[in-house]
Amino acid sequence: MIEVAVRHAFDDLAIDVEFVADSRCVALFGDSGAGKTTLLNAIAGLLSPQQGRIVLDGQVLFDRAGQIDTPVAIREVGYVFQEARLFPHLNVRANLLYGARARGRPVDRFEAVVELLELGALLGRRTPSLSGGERQRVAIGRALLSSPRILLLDEPLTGLHREARVQVLEHLRRLKQALQIATLIVSHQPDEVVALADEVILLKAGQMAGRLDVAAFGRSQGL
Amino acid sequence: MSPISPDEWQALALSLRIGLLSVLVSLPFALGLAWLLSRSRFPGRLLVEALLFLPLTLPPVVTGYALLVLFGRHGWIGEWLAEIGVVFAFRWTGAVLAACVMGFPLLVLSIRVAFDGVDRRLEQAAQTLGASAWRRFVTIVVPLSVRGIVAGSVLAFARAFGEFGATITFVSSIPGETRTLPIAIYELMSLPGGEGGVQRLTLVALAVAFAATLVAALLGGAMWGRGRHD
Prior knowledge:
The structure holds two protein chains of two kinds.
Chain A: E1 2-9, E2 14-21, E3 25-29, H1 36-44, E4 51-56, E5 59-63, E6 68-69, E7 77-80, H2 92-103, H3 110-116, H4 132-144, E8 150-154, H5 162-178, E9 182-187, H6 190-196, E10 199-204, E11 207-213, H7 214-220
Parallel strand pairs in A: 3-9, 3-10, 7-8, 8-9
Antiparallel strand pairs in A: 1-2, 1-4, 4-5, 5-6, 10-11
Chain B: H1 6-39, H2 45-57, H3 60-71, H4 78-83, H5 92-116, H6 120-128, H7 133-144, H8 146-161, H9 165-171, H10 181-189, H11 195-229
Keywords (chain A): ATP-binding, Nucleotide-binding
Pfam family, one (chain A): ABC_tran
Protein name (chain A): Molybdate transport system ATP-binding protein
């Protein structure tokens, strides 16, 4: 369960969002500029909100009033960035194992994740030679294998061409069924949200504009 | 042209040794300082940068004199170091120190440019995966800067190899101890019949310097070229 209360003013956008999520997969849905990525950055610790409090499974990650700001490296939040951000000097296997090695933990469910994401044939490849869809699959695997308590997906399908998009979406669906991991997904594509989320939080210009279960969201989008 | 004499070999070997050692000794400090200058804002930063570049702008003789005042047998630091058995004055170790000081700005500058070129977003990704600052430095920043680090090392080596003014001022010219290749050339020029040696050593110096700048240019070009394509 994650509790998020974030207030942060940029020059052109004031974010004021508060929610508690305990469904398995919650989508943050809204146009670009609604503050979705800012929320993920705040949860991951890449941005310290001016005001707010973030609690993950009972552990306070951030509390402005209580002066708590847990360092990013020990938050155990798996972040899949929009642009994959794979390490270009490491091959796919080393990218996947980076988190486990950094935390000095035994590698958990490596085979299962590799199989679910169909990465077996790519393990020895250098990452700059991968296609967009392959990169994103590696990024998802890399985040999962760092044993996170929550997975943050920031528009993981944006920038992929149609075929790759369908393929990665299918992989994400399979992951959701196979692995028990809380997920927050940021998206502005209704079909992604309907395919993956259990619950949807609507964001508009930095504010919450509603909260729906996924069936109601699908109907509202005509899907 | 006759072959290189034992004295000339000695000067060449000494210059090579001083060049290599000075880079090896400076490298950890240069990496640390380049990291600080690239990634943090601290008070006095401008002063540190100005001091760093001083050896490039000062007349080398002045740098050598400053080293003598600081690290000479009766120098401010040298006197104290002599008590624990570390002597720089008129020793080859002093030539290494002079070479370190003269090459340091080139080393730090090259490495800093390379560090600046590393995509911060990759470091953020490593951070979310649990990597500490030290681990990110070792596993992400340094490997992605390796061309800049090598290019800087080659430049600093070439600078150290050719060092003259600071060295002769600080440690004089003692055959086999501090008479480096440039100093040997200078002395041969004032000796009757020294032209042959001057020409031989000049060719050697030319070859070493050219090879070094070529390697640095190759690595530098490849480094900036790579940035464009990725």
